[in-house]
Write a structure and sequence with these properties.
Blueprint (H helix, E strand, L loop, with lengths): L1 H42 L6 H28 L7 H7 L4 H17 L2 H19 L7
Length: about 140
C-alpha cells in the first residue's frame, strides 16, 4: 500500500513539473505574441488595447496547441514518429494562400539542399528497407 502512495506522490510531482513547464511556455508565447502585436501596431501607426492583445495571444496559444496535436496525428496516420513539411502543408488545407506559401517555402528549401544530400537520403531509405526485411537468426 505504501508503494502505491509513493508512486502517486512521484506522479503528482511529475505532473506539477509538467504544468510548471507548460505555464512557462505559455507565458513566453504570450510575451512574444504581445511584442509582435505591439510592433505591428506601431509599424502601421495604430494603437491596440491591452485586452485585445491578451485575447489574440490566448487564441494564438490555443490554436498552436491544436495545430501541434493535428500534426502529431497526421504523422502518426502516415506511420511516422516525427512531423514533416507535408504534414504542415496538409494542416493548412483550409487556407489556400497559406498552403501555397508553405509549398513555395518547401520548394525553396529543396532547391537550396545540395543534390548529393538528396541522393544520399533516398539511398539510405532503400538501405533501411533492406535492413528491415533481413531477419537475424541467432546460433543455437
Amino acid at each position: 500500500m505504501e508503494i502505491d502512495e509513493d508512486r502517486s506522490d512521484v506522479e503528482k510531482e511529475e505532473e506539477e513539473e509538467d504544468d510548471s513547464i507548460s505555464d512557462l511556455l505559455r507565458d513566453r508565447f504570450r510575451l512574444s505574441a504581445i511584442s509582435i502585436a505591439e510592433a505591428e501596431a506601431k509599424r502601421n501607426g495604430m494603437e491596440i488595447s491591452e485586452p485585445i492583445v491578451a485575447c489574440i495571444s490566448d487564441l494564438a496559444f490555443k490554436y498552436t496547441g491544436q495545430l501541434a496535436k493535428d500534426l502529431e496525428l497526421f504523422a502518426h496516420h502516415a506511420g511516422r514518429k516525427s512531423v514533416n513539411m507535408e504534414d504542415v502543408i496538409v494542416s493548412a488545407h483550409r487556407n489556400e494562400h497559406l498552403a501555397a506559401s508553405l509549398r513555395s517555402f518547401r520548394n525553396e528549401l529543396k532547391a537550396k539542399e545540395p543534390q548529393s544530400e538528396r541522393k544520399r537520403k533516398k539511398g539510405s531509405r532503400k538501405d533501411d528497407k533492406a535492413t528491415a526485411s533481413v531477419v537475424h537468426i541467432p546460433d543455437l
